[in-house]
Design brief:
The protein has 14 helices and no strands. It has helices at about 1-5, 15-20, 30-40, 50-75, 75-80, 85-90, 95-115, 115-135, 145-170, 175-195, 200-205, 210-240, 245-270, 270-300.
Amino acid sequence: MSSQASSGALAYPAPSAIAELFKPITWFPPMWAFACGVVASGMPLADRWPLILVGLLLAGPLVCATSQAVNDWYDRHVDAINEPHRPIPSGRMPGRWGLYLALAWTALSLLVATALGPWGFGAAVIGLLLAWAYSAPPVRLKRNGWWGNAACGLCYEGLAWATGAAVMAYGAMPSGRSLLLALLYSAGAHGIMTLNDFKSVKGDRQMGIGSLPVRLGIDGAARTACLMMALPQIVVVGLLWHWQAPVHAGAVVALLLAQAVLMRRFLKAPEQQALFYSGFGVPLFVAGMMVSAFALRAAGASA
């Protein structure tokens, strides 16, 4: 951190450091969930493209990017242990620029959210509140892996899905079936968030952050992550079958079975295989989200 102090208050971060702070690779999950909500709404797409594009912008490059900047600022001391190459602990993001960018992107997100009507704006407010509550004291939900991962899962999947469905329905309440699927996939995302915690166990222990790998141990957290991802998908399969969408239910079963094969490899060496499972297992999970969304669209359940 000394390099930040010596760089002076007038120093500016390079564009590459800003891009790294906002972590574009993390924007995909909420943008995908928003698209799932759009599909699940059952509404025609032709006349809603401008709002769909605004919603995708809000979900990824704005709200999600804000959450990444907030997290990196308040995690700078932990990152100095776990990942000292990151923009803030490395000094490439000098002074308090990490905080300034988090505040600026919060304001910009709220401004853009006004274009999506009351539902879209309200969802953005909730998402931003969760982003700050997750990382910033005194709340700092990430100190408890159960609450912190729940907040992330809800923000990344449930809120984004519900916002996409509401935007397509001209601001009306999304259907109960759509909201139920959004909630189930939010619960599944709790496990996905745990995968990200395996790389930072050392720093989390030193800084008193109770991630699930710290609370439950490596093996216990790995089993919990797998259960949190699998159980909601099993419920989704049952619901799709009950809603007379057997083909879509079968597709989710196939995706879940493929995940189970990868989970076996992950459970044998969680710390070494967490990144592998994130790269190959999580895409199968989110593919099931879109399959489920298309099941609602095919049945007209959200019209």
